[in-house]
Specification:
Radius of gyration: 19 Å
Number of domains: 1
Helix content: 40-55%
Number of helices: 10
CATH superfamily: HUPs
Shape: globular
CATH architecture: 3-Layer(aba) Sandwich
CATH class: Alpha Beta
Strand content: 5-15%
Distance between the termini: 54 Å
Number of strands: 8
Structural class: alpha/beta
Length: 255
């Protein structure tokens, strides 16, 4: 029974990643994909699924796994060894000064997570350019996208989320999120069969309370609306512009 369940989860996750890649045109022949491997569950699952798809796909592309050592993680050596033994991939570890920068620059009254994210993203952009990567793959899944949508609506007064595939504002980098169709629950189930542990995060500054609050709201609402996550995600690609409160200047911009 466990073996059948494992095969079901593996096929489901691979099918959803394949569908997201196809629907959002994430991968092209000859691509060199820099995969950001933080060492957390999501990024490890992403690397494994991309490796499996690469082996079975007629489309030829390269995978470049990279780990940014922020100074807050421990245990990544075991993950690097697993990637080498199980996937035949060598993860390039890049030392950073992110932990010391955050300790020196963070406003104690605000969460440092936003600054940390920007620092990591900037470093990935530079690495992608130096390594000749055509895109950067991040491990955000459907729950991350939905939570970001609510955070932007509630705290910034803006409708937006995380696009499964997009070009950065400077036009120089393409970001892809192949786990966009996978829920956190599916990713956790898949990870549970992999026989590996994620890194331990020892960040004393980590206080993303707003995201946690949104996460709890969603879990509460989901008790009455079982398909909540799928419905919210679908709405992000099914926009009724005529019903939005767009001023004339905004309408001209969109059309």
């Amino acid at each position: 029974m466990n073996h059948r369940h494992r095969r079901f989860i593996e096929r489901k996750a691979r099918r959803k990643v394949g569908a997201a890649i196809k629907d959002y045109r994430m991968i092209f022949p000859g691509d060199r994909i820099l995969v950001a491997v933080s060492g957390g569950m999501d990024s490890i699952v992403l690397l494994k699924l991309l490796s499996d798809i690469k082996g079975a796909s007629p489309v030829q592309f390269d995978i470049i796994p990279v780990h940014l050592d922020t100074g807050f993680e421990s245990g990544f050596e075991d993950i690097a060894s697993w990637c080498r033994a199980e996937l035949g991939l060598e993860v390039e570890v890049i030392a950073t000064r992110i932990s010391s920068i955050l300790k020196q620059s963070s406003d104690p009254s605000k969460s440092p997570c936003g600054l940390c994210s920007r620092l990591r993203r900037g470093m990935l952009y530079h690495l992608a350019s130096d390594m000749g990567a055509t895109s950067i793959a991040l491990g955000h899944h459907m729950d991350d996208i939905i939570e970001t949508f609510f955070l932007r609506v509630l705290y910034t007064g803006q409708i937006g989320a995380m696009a499964p595939s997009r070009v950065s504002n400077d036009g120089k980098n393409r970001i892809i999120r192949p786990l966009a169709y996978c829920t956190k629950e599916l990713v956790e189930s898949y990870f549970g069969f992999m026989g590996i542990h994620g890194v331990s995060i020892n960040c004393p500054l980590r206080t993303d309370s707003k995201r946690e609050m949104v996460r709890q709201y969603l879990e509460t609402m989901e008790k009455d609306i079982p398909n909540l996550r799928y419905s919210v995600f679908a709405s992000l690609g099914n926009i009724d512009e005529k019903s939005l409160c767009l001023k004339e200047s905004k309408l001209a911009h969109y059309h």
